[in-house]
Amino acid sequence: MVHWSAEEKQLISSVWGKVNVEECGAEALARLLIVYPWTQRFFSNFGNLSSPTAIIGNPKVRAHGKKVLTSFGEAVKNLDNIKGTYSKLSELHCEKLHVDPENFRLLGDILVIVLASHFGRDFTPACQFAWQKLVGVVAHALARRYH
Amino acid sequence: MLTAEDKKMVQQVWEKVSGHQEDVGAETLERMFAAYPQTKTYFPHFDLHHGSDQIRGHGKKVVAALGNAVKNLDNLSQALSELSNLHAYNLRVDPPCFSSQLLSQCLQVVLAVHLGKDYNPETHSAVDKFMSAVAAVLAEKYR
């Protein structure tokens, strides 16, 4: 089980409390598809992904980004059982979606950058530490049921 | 590969932070030591407290080297050749450290903190590619 200090929990939930899940989710997913274009392989039915503008404006990208970040919220609510929280999703990503777990790490790093751009100086080094740890734990949990 | 557009964007970003290069360098290193404690193992001889002169000094060096790379985007291999030797033969920083983008991630967080919305997806992409290219050159001579 992952150990979270009281400070880490506080930093995570105080940032999360201010996050606009729809906006940040959409932005994080769009950036994933733009910065690491090979990730578009998982979204061939999303329509127009031909340019950064197209990706950012794509309603399916926005909707899915919101879905992904909403699910991330489950981790924030269940810091002491992230493994259990993502057990089914891990199986899904392996068996149905066939996503290489490396992509979870990429999305996690991008989410941290999105938070930094939204929160500026408030996203302190201590905040970054807690959130890099969180995205790492989530990525690990999502990869855990792969076989 | 860095396109002409990418190169322009990297140069533009660099210009935007040209007044605060020292701060950017120090903050990047501080965040790297805070977020990825394993990186501290390469600096046992440093005072790693917040605001330390050594961190400022080293941050300045790192940013100057990156600035030199930005001025020589068409020939990164040559521009970073000395540094590549240094990292391979003297410093021997674990190469995956470069490829797992630890410094790149922290530099980008600092740029995002300072530039906010201006650190847009296209700029993010260009800087990420640039840092990847720098990491690849630095790791070239390892074996």
TrEMBL record, chain A:
Residue spans crossing the bilayer: none
Domain of life, per lineage: Eukaryota
Gene Ontology biological-process annotations: hydrogen peroxide catabolic process
Cellular component annotations (GO), alphabetically ordered: blood microparticle; haptoglobin-hemoglobin complex; hemoglobin complex
Annotated GO MF terms: haptoglobin binding; heme binding; metal ion binding; organic acid binding; oxygen binding; oxygen carrier activity; peroxidase activity
InterPro entries: Globin, Globin-like_sf, Globin/Proto, Hemoglobin_b, Hemoglobin_oxygen_transport
Annotated ranges, domain Globin: 3-147
Keywords: Heme, Iron, Metal-binding, Oxygen transport, Transport
CDD domains documented for this protein: Hb-beta-like
KW Cell cycle (keyword) present: no
Subunit structure: Heterotetramer of two alpha chains and two beta chains.
Family: Belongs to the globin family.
Function of the protein: Involved in oxygen transport from the lung to the various peripheral tissues.
Record protein name field: Hemoglobin subunit beta
Organism the protein comes from: Pachyramphus minor
TrEMBL record, chain B:
Keywords carried by this UniProt record: Heme, Iron, Metal-binding, Oxygen transport, Transport
Pfam families referenced in this protein's UniProt entry, alphabetically: Globin
Transmembrane residue ranges: none
GO CC term (a single one): blood microparticle
GO biological processes: hydrogen peroxide catabolic process
Keyword Ubl conjugation: no
GO molecular function: haptoglobin binding; heme binding; iron ion binding; organic acid binding; oxygen binding; oxygen carrier activity; peroxidase activity
Domain Globin: 1-143
Role according to the record: Involved in oxygen transport from the lung to the various peripheral tissues.
Subunit structure: Heterotetramer of two alpha-D chains and two beta chains.
Family in the record: Belongs to the globin family.
Protein name as catalogued: HBA2 protein
Organism of this sequence: Pachyramphus minor
Origin organism lineage: Eukaryota, Metazoa, Chordata, Craniata, Vertebrata
